[in-house]
Amino acid sequence: MKASRFSDAQKAFILKKGAEGIPVADICRRAGISQATYFNWKKKYDGMLPPDMRRLKQLEDENTKLRKLVADLSLDKEMLQDAIRRKL
Questions:
Q1: How far apart are the first and last CA of the chain?
Q2: Which of 14, 28, 33, 77 has the fewest CB atoms within 10 Å distance of its CB?
Q3: Which pLDDT score, from 0 to 100, does residue 1 have?
């Protein structure tokens, strides 16, 4: 996945401006993002501070690694069970 041009602090600042009542179109034009990006950030990060955003990103990365590990181990288990069935 492509890395974001914006830091967590910048995303929080942009979302804070939206909460203050500034029109979304103006916020997006000034920040150089699309409205879809703004609303995706709002859905994911609304109400979070930059440390919370970093923690969420760390947890998502860890979850992805664990899912891959479980998938690999499940595949290994299935191959070993298939080998045992063939021998018997």
A1: 45
A2: 77
A3: 61
pLDDT in tens, 1-46: 677 789 999 999 999 999 999 999 999 999 999 999 999 999 999 8
* Token pair listed for 19: 């909460």
Q: How many residues are listed for the chain in this entry? A: 88
Q: Dihedral of the CA atoms 57, 62, 64, 69 (nearest 10)?
A: 170
**Do residues 35 and 28 touch, judged by C-beta distance below 8 A?**
yes
pLDDT at 88: 74
**Alpha-carbon gap, residue 16 to 14, rounded angstroms:** 5
CB 38 within 8 A of CB 18: yes
Residue 14 burial class via C-beta count within 10 angstroms: exposed 0-12, middle 13-18, buried 19 and up: buried
- With contact defined as beta carbons under 8 Å apart, do 45 and 13 qualify? no
CA–CA gap between residue 25 and residue 45 (Å, rounded):
19
